[in-house]
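For anyone still unconvinced, we reproduce a single protein record, the chain in one-letter code, the fold tokenised, and leave readers to judge:
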Amino acid sequence: MTRDVLIPRPETERLIEVALLRAAHLHPHVPLRVLDLGTGSGAIAVSMAKELPLARIYATDLVPSALAIARQNATLHGVADRITFRCGDLFAAVADQMNGFDLIVANPPYIRRAEIATLSAEVR
């Protein structure tokens, strides 16, 4: 982790659990196409790749240094070959993927910058 990405919170784990439950009800015998918008550290994309070994994951972020961290995390967990990393603003980074996605997951920053200083240290 670096200052370029946010540290995943417990809520991120819950998001992944819900996404995996949804994925289980989609196409159980067909490789899913999953999009992680604003991947940051890659926690969601990496977790989805580990739990859905047949899935093809796309992970986007606007910040190149965040994508570098996500790539490192994917490599560390042995799933880098199944995640396509794209730099760009949300869907613009995957505009060429005309077939769409089976599942879209996102956990973007939702705290205003002006409020960050008022938060507890572990959240900041």
Remarks:
- The CA atoms of residues 28 and 54 lie 10 Å apart.
- The first strand starts at residue 33 and ends at 37.
- The mean pLDDT is 85.
- The longest helix spans residues 10-24.
